[in-house]
Design brief:
The protein is an alpha/beta fold. The chain has helices at residues 29-35, 57-69, 84-91, 115-128; strands at residues 2-8, 13-15, 22-24, 42-50, 74-78, 98-102, 132-137, 140-143, 147-150, 155-158. The mean pLDDT is 92. This is Asparaginase. Keywords: Membrane, Transmembrane, Transmembrane helix. It comes from Marinobacter daepoensis. The chain crosses the membrane at residues 115-137.
């Protein structure tokens, strides 16, 4: 069993029109998993609905506590990309579990999104990797503490 924790981020953003602000909507994760042909072997627990730039240290500690309190040895976390590396770093002291964070550069509700691929890829990563904390984005896996988001290139890279 894999526990999936949702925290919000771009993957769950809703834009109403070009002139309006975004908001974090209900997670499309069940649909994304279904589109990836993943129908069982998981449970979803929503933790928060925040843009990752709005996450605070107490929010990160809530995520760490949720991971520690989980009865599942494998945990997938959907997270905003801007501070994903910070949360992965906060999770690094957690031992005995495989924790994979993923998200999207474009909202799942958009036609040209990387959300479906990233969720499927992260599912494979959390299923196969040994215990540790990782980020799985755009076809690459990075260990916590050795990754950053390159804003200009819109990708993650090793540090």
């Amino acid at each position: 069993m894999i526990e999936i924790l949702t925290t919000g981020g771009t993957i769950d953003k809703v834009y109403f029109d070009a002139n309006s602000a975004f908001e974090i909507g209900d997670s499309l994760l069940p649909e994304l998993l279904s589109e990836s042909n993943i129908h069982e072997g998981y449970k979803i627990r929503p933790l928060m609905r925040k843009d990752s730039l709005e996450l605070t240290d107490p929010d990160r500690q809530s995520i760490v506590a949720a991971v520690k309190d989980s009865d599942c040895p494998r945990i997938l976390i959907t997270h905003g990309t801007d501070t994903m590396a910070l949360t992965a770093q906060a999770l690094k002291p957690v031992t005995g579990r495989t924790v994979v964070l993923t998200g999207a550069m474009q909202p799942a509700r958009m036609r040209r999104t990387d959300a479906i691929f990233n969720v499927g890829f992260a599912w494979a990563a959390v299923s196969l990797l040994p215990a540790g904390v990782y980020i799985a984005m755009n076809g690459e896996v990075f260990e916590a503490g050795s990754v950053r988001k390159n804003l200009q290139a819109q990708r993650f890279e090793r540090t």
